[in-house]
């Protein structure tokens, strides 16, 4: 009976599970690709198991946050079950069954997608089409299944502990807490520090490109310091500046929902700054991994043994996808939680003259802005550093590989845009039911 109830709840809550499904399927697909490519390339050793282990760690961490989110969304439902006399052991069994059902579907989808991608890579890039067979498929599935089971078992153990500690009163009266805003008066100091750091970063980058190798090589090892510093200082300045504007309340804020948007951005000042700094760095790592992977997979690159080099290329691109998934998963989860917390405030807008269409547009703008904010500094850094780095690579690489960095950047931009559109749709779809807007709803 409880298993059937789990199936029914999983079907009914499929929209709530969209973020979980997307994250799980994507990471399992990447894991399957890495396993298949490693087996085809006969790469046995730490480099073969390192990526699946890394993905498993990321999977456990991300699923942990998604579990907490799902438990909060269904807190009152679980409280009703407990009030009706359901034992906590039965409730935890039902909740675990839901995740196992969804997880099994994600595993099947991820394995099929991953094997399809790996087969395409083997044929088009690695030129090992003769080594693709069902035994390869079976062995790679076993490896992926082991990592999947490990992540699911760790997640199930934590879910059971979470449910066992639940109290009915806590579920019924659960409240979200807004973080207190900090003092934004120091943004001018952050702005000056940012300009100084940016000048240092630009000078070091120009030195690497135009100075001789014996001078440029030591600079490469220290350029990461002003690079990370510029990201940290920029977002400290940005959120401090927005908070200062919010406090001053100039006239232009009262037009086109600007005050609402700035209020949403600065509602959790410290947390938002830390998240944006972390995810901006994550996005830069993703871009660098993608560029390295493309260069490694290019036929003109001759750095290592061909099989090892191709495996390293696939590994780098896989890391790129992992970082992108982390970027969008964290932002999506944060945005869904914030929209749910502000659902009542958004609904009030309909009673003060806002139409359903206007509310939808406002929510879309909020989602779009939040998903792009960590990208601002990453885009700026890539925009002025890629042309210089491309110029340097053109001097080092053969003519057939000239401008490969520019082409890699274009491909990365397309990949990022694809994930952005997918996650935007997921967040908007989930959020619509929380804030109570639909295509056919009318407001007075």
Topology record:
Layout: H1 2-12, H2 18-40, H3 46-73, H4 75-83, H5 88-124, H6 134-164, H7 168-172, H8 187-210, H9 213-222, H10 224-248, H11 258-265, H12 269-297, H13 306-341, H14 343-351, H15 356-372, H16 375-396, H17 404-435
Helix pairs in contact: 1-5, 2-3, 2-5, 2-6, 2-13, 3-6, 3-13, 5-6, 8-9, 8-10, 8-16, 10-11, 10-12, 12-13, 12-16, 12-17, 13-15, 13-17, 15-17, 16-17
Can you give keywords for this protein?
444 residues, mainly alpha, flat, disordered C terminus
Order of helices and strands: HHHHHHHHHHHHHHHHH
Can you tell me the overall shape? Answer: flat
The low-pLDDT segments are 43-47, 174-184, 440-444
Helical fraction? over 70%
Largest sheet: none
* CA distance, first residue to last residue: 44 Å
Domain module tally? 2
Q: How many strands?
A: 0
Give the class from helix and strand content and strand pairing: mainly alpha
> Taking all residues together, what is the mean pLDDT?
76
Strand portion:
under 5%
Number of helices: 17
Give Rg in angstroms: 24 Å
Question: If you had to describe this structure to a student in words, what would you say it looks like?
Answer:
The chain has 444 residues and is mainly α. The protein has two domains: 175 residues, no CATH class; 191 residues. Helix 13 packs parallel to helix 17. It starts with a helix and ends in a 9-residue tail after the last helix. 34% of the residues are buried. The C terminus is likely disordered.
